[in-house]
Amino acid sequence: MFAAAELIRSSTASLRLILFALVAGAALAAEGQLAVPLLSGEKWWGGRVVDGAAMPYGATRAIARSLHAIDPESNQIQPLLVSSAGRYVWNEGPFAFAFADGKLRLSQASADFTVATGGKTLADAFRAAARAHFPPTGRMPAPLLFTAPQYNTWIELLYEQRQERVLKYAHDLVAAGYPPGVLMIDDNWQEAYGTWEFSARRFSDSKAMMAELHRLGFKVMLWVCPFVSADTEVFRALEKSNLLLKEKRRGAAASTARPAIVRWWNGASAVLDLSNPEARAWFHARLDRLRREFGVDGFKFDAGDSPFYLSDTPGVEFTSHRPRTPEEHTEDFAAVGRDFPFNEYRACWKMAGEGLAQRLRDKDHTWDALRELIPGIVAQGLMGYAFTCPDMIGGGWSTAFEDPKKFDPELVVRSAQVHALMPMMQFSVAPWRVLDHKQAAICLAAAKLHARLGPTLLAFARHAAQTGEPIVRPLAWQWPGRDYEEIHDQFMLGDEILVAPVVVKGARSRRVAFPPGKWRGDDDVVIEGPVTKEIAAPLERIPHFQLVR
């Protein structure tokens, strides 16, 4: 069963949004599928942000994906596909899709599909989808997340989050000349999962530490998750109050249900049932106490991936206060962040248009992973997640920084440069520790460039909060019909800054596609497009160009 609607006139654009139903053949209908013929040259984005490097999809790129809870290390997901020809697909629930044989095949959905034409371009398709299905709320994350670099303690401290080490990291940042911004204290500051209190063994005077970090100019965010360590006082209290996700044998009486124990990257834990208003209130109260009594500014909300809400034991199902799909549990966790302007999420479902900072999933320390940053950020924006952060500089996996054979200083430098001209940039590994003096100076210059661009980035973020439009855009957004869809190593920052960083090891020049207009480079040279030119890109340069109005 598929949705159909009359012509409706948009109140914010002159284009008419045409919603129509496509009727599948009898065989396809019997299988619960819908086949959408592809238009000539049509390209598509959407679904899972983790697939950004494989986008755009189309007739020349056969691929099959599912939005159901299957990937234990997912990223943002949105039941949306948008095309360069002005069309989009939406569903209120997860579905599967495949591009093959000149068709887009849609299946495995429990709700009706909407297939719509909102105009003739990628931007038309996105705007129509946003108006109809995820209109912007007008809210945005805290301005400081955009106007200064972020610093995360993970790579330097790992699970040894201790007061003296956190303070040393902060003092070293200031001593090295980095602009103070948001400092995120990562996993293992707490007494236990669910016991959201500073560990007395690792933090002798957490209030004094917070005061010192604020004096240095930092805002402080703490890592949190929806898990609860079993065999703790908090677990027992939550179990007694029925605030935990439960499990039971299929067909068994509800009275046999007991707290579900979920395996995740840090072991096995119970899970808050955030479909229950009382559980949400309990979690919120713990976070509010950290803000009120300790001066914590916000939170990095980690985990919450939909597969964690799906039992992996045959014959066992999870139950919750309200009937929820795994994806809806992820949505419930993300909804907590609405009340905290200093926030960050790595996994989300249907939270486009909300004032939430969205980070790409952890990347490895490789050049291939670096090349995934731009298409990943582009995918986030085209799925409605405008407030984006491209993981930690150099990659979020710690193993490469522990193995000299895997560590590549040039990769850290070029990674910092990619971050510098994105809406947010996040350091974790300390450049002054792992790089030589010249390389560390280049990273510092990238951080200062991001801070100088702060007012511009903030203006773009405010525009996105009102319109829902992405901050980072592919060239095809602004210049349709020029075969820019397959450019994966350039992007537009807003509608006026063309960014073309180096993402190839050893490269000291690169080819840049300049769209129509006059472009003033960071080297003050003006280039008139449309043209493709080879430009110099020594290690210290981040090629970027301002559109001359």
Structure description:
The chain contains 17 helices and 34 strands. It is of the alpha+beta class. It folds into 3 domains: 8-133, Sandwich (Immunoglobulin-like), CATH 2.60.40; 144-224 and 275-312 and 324-461, TIM Barrel (Alpha-Beta Barrel), CATH 3.20.20.80; 462-548, Immunoglobulin-like (Sandwich). Strand 18 and strand 19 (258-259) form a beta hairpin. The model is unreliable at 1-31 (pLDDT under 50).
Task: Describe the secondary-structure layout.
Blueprint: E1 8-9, E2 16-20, H1 26-30, E3 34-37, E4 43-48, E5 57-58, E6 63-66, E7 76-83, E8 87-91, E9 96-100, E10 103-107, E11 113-117, H2 122-133, H3 144-147, E12 150-152, H4 154-157, H5 163-175, E13 182-185, E14 190-192, E15 195-198, H6 206-215, E16 219-224, E17 227-228, H7 233-240, E18 246-249, E19 258-259, E20 262-264, E21 267-271, H8 277-294, E22 298-301, E23 316-319, H9 326-336, E24 342-345, E25 348-349, E26 358-359, H10 367-371, H11 373-382, E27 388-389, H12 399-402, H13 409-420, E28 426-427, H14 431-434, H15 437-452, H16 454-467, E29 472-473, H17 475-478, E30 491-493, E31 497-499, E32 509-521, E33 526-536, E34 544-548
Parallel strand pairs: 7-25, 12-13, 12-28, 13-16, 16-22, 22-24, 26-27
Antiparallel strand pairs: 1-2, 2-11, 3-10, 4-5, 4-7, 6-9, 7-8, 8-11, 9-10, 14-15, 17-21, 18-19, 18-23, 20-21, 29-30, 30-31, 31-34, 32-33, 32-34
